[in-house]
Amino acid sequence: MAENEKRIKTHRIRCLSKMKMFLLAITCAFVSKTLSGSYMNSMLTQIERQFNIPTSLVGFINGSFEIGNLLLIIFVSYFGTKLHRPILIGVGCVVMGLGCFLQSLPHFLMERYEYESTVSVSGNLSSNSFLCMENGTQIIRPTEDPSECVKEVKSLMWMYVLVGNIIRGIGETPIMPLGISYIEDFAKSENSPLYIGFVETGAIIGPLFGLSLASFCANVYVDTGSVNTDDLTITPTDTRWVGAWWFGFLICAGVNVLTAIPFFFLPKWLPKEGLKSNADIIKNDKEEKQREEVKKKKDGITKDFLPFMKSLLCNPVYMLFILISIIQFNAFVNMFTFMPKYLEQQHGKSASDVIFLIGIYNLPPICIGYIAGGLIMKKFKITVKQAAHIACWLSLTEYLLHFLCFLMICDNSSVAGITTTYNGMQQDLYMENAILADCNRDCNCPTKTWDPVCGNNGVSYMSACLAGCETSVGAGINMVFQNCSCIQASGNSSAVLGLCDKGHDCSMMLQYFLILSAVGSFIYSLSAIPGYMVLLRCIKPEEKSLGVGLHTFCTRVFAGIPAPIYFGALVDSTCLHWGTLKCGESGACRIYDSANFRYIYLGLPAALRGLSYIPAFLILNILKNRHLPGENASSGTMLTEAKTTKKENECKDMDQNSKVLNDNELKTKL
């Protein structure tokens, strides 16, 4: 008796502390992995400009995370349940930290960033060699020297970022499938949605920190401390600006390694949460030992892999759910990956401001939605069929609201020779030989270098030379150009560095877009937990870990990897002017066609999500008369069955006791 009581107390302490400790640790792991993931997504534009690569290649670098993930996801999901899950998660966090560190290495291995400019930062600013000089010899920065070209292209330094992202994907592999299956195995069925809601909330808190860090780093010049920032002729709103992208990766590396520590002190198994009676605890303890003995006696660890796979592939609800996830992930991966670039180009804001606004407007509603979804599932004991309806109709509501984004538009920036004529009239885009006009034809200006100035007539020009400016005053970012022959304005025709501001109306459109995005994010996140519970409850308990892993694998292969690549290529097709390297080759894009960019960014995801509702309605139809394996785990049903069984046992005990008493009385009388 004393030994049993001691074991019961030990189990209670272990259940209270270890389960909560694991929940806290896995939530922190989700925070760290999404911190580095959101930071990577936010720094894509900075990486594109740093290495002068097209958006399609940046999309491939971003998709390389999924490549690393899918290399191990199936095996980790299946074999992970046979091994020590907490330790595997801890090792994954350490590997993620190593990947983040590798991503920051190019900054320390290559030369300082040098942006294209007609104005020499290191040279004599008062020479005015970059201005309009009739019948003179113009000093053009881009040269044909192959050695300088190689230095400017930075060779294949972006490969470090690519490989680091792959390693980060490998490290992230065990966190979600093993963490979710661990909670499902040892938590009460009615507590499981709430716990998963807390974990998913960690996946939102991470991006909140990640976007804040990215906003800070994007506002700091990439070579700060190595160059005098007072001499810079660009600001964070300029498309040539590169923030200190490498600094945030170092922070992410440290956070990931620290997060790994608690997992090495957690046990392989826990008692099922909610066991109160002595018999239940002792029975659970015996079942644990029996499970371990059975696993040791198995001839091969892959004995049930193929049967599980066959069962999952023949499950129509599960397969339709995977199809929905693939289609919707294609839409959302594109929207989240290129959202900073879209808002920068559409509304003329700096990367720092845009990233900060995305975090403020989008993440808190998503966090609240996840928690509310978990609480609703717990409080009202939502069944699988009810959860499917909630997820479908809430998602459809948010989808319809998405179309309002098409009304929140801004016009293209007015750039003479690209989007407007030198007379200020709108012109057809992609016109050839429109860069030169009568006012600057004799100025001997470079026609490819992007060094924009804003005239006091509200029109931007590709450079001060192409604006026909003859003199300048001041230095650095405060330089003012005067006597500009192409600027038709009353009084002195002058210009300042940078593109012209898009105005108050465009800023208001950005606010409306972000408010609508916040409402949509809340509605969609409210449906996320019910939708995820459909996935978990439509498969058998023993197939759960493999089912989650296979679901993740499919979304990585058919959405996470290809989506940024083809979407990046479509974005590249809307480029109006490419940056120029020293050797004259094309670099990163400097300005996009806002209208076409908008149609691709908003239209393609809308079309994809519309297709996803066909399998969604099929699932609702199948669930009408289908009994799912997870429905037995419904808390309400289990509670009712437990009470009924308890009452029946009590009645049986009373009947047996009365029979014993009657027999004793009969024997006494005899």
From TrEMBL:
Matching InterPro entries: Kazal_dom, Kazal_dom_sf, MFS_trans_sf, OATP
Residue ranges that the Swiss-Prot or TrEMBL entry lists as coiled coil: 272-304
Recorded GO MF terms: bile acid transmembrane transporter activity; sodium-independent organic anion transmembrane transporter activity
Alphabetized UniProt keyword annotations: Cell membrane, Coiled coil, Disulfide bond, Glycoprotein, Ion transport, Membrane, Transmembrane, Transmembrane helix, Transport
Transmembrane segments: 60-80, 87-105, 157-183, 195-222, 242-266, 317-339, 354-376, 512-536, 557-579, 599-623
Membrane topology value: Multi-pass membrane protein
Record's compositionally biased regions (Basic and acidic residues): 643-670
Superkingdom in the source lineage: Eukaryota
PROSITE patterns: KAZAL_2
Database matches in NCBIfam families: oat
Organism of derivation: Puma concolor (Mountain lion)
Main location: membrane
Family classification: Belongs to the organo anion transporter (TC 2.A.60) family.
Pfam families linked: Kazal_2, OATP
Annotated GO CC locations: basolateral plasma membrane
Cross-referenced Gene3D superfamilies: 3.30.60.30, MFS general substrate transporter like domains
Compartments (UniProt record): Cell membrane
Name of the protein described by the UniProt record: Solute carrier organic anion transporter family member
Any single biological process term in GO: sodium-independent organic anion transport
Region called Disordered, residue ranges: 634-670
Domain Kazal-like: 433-488
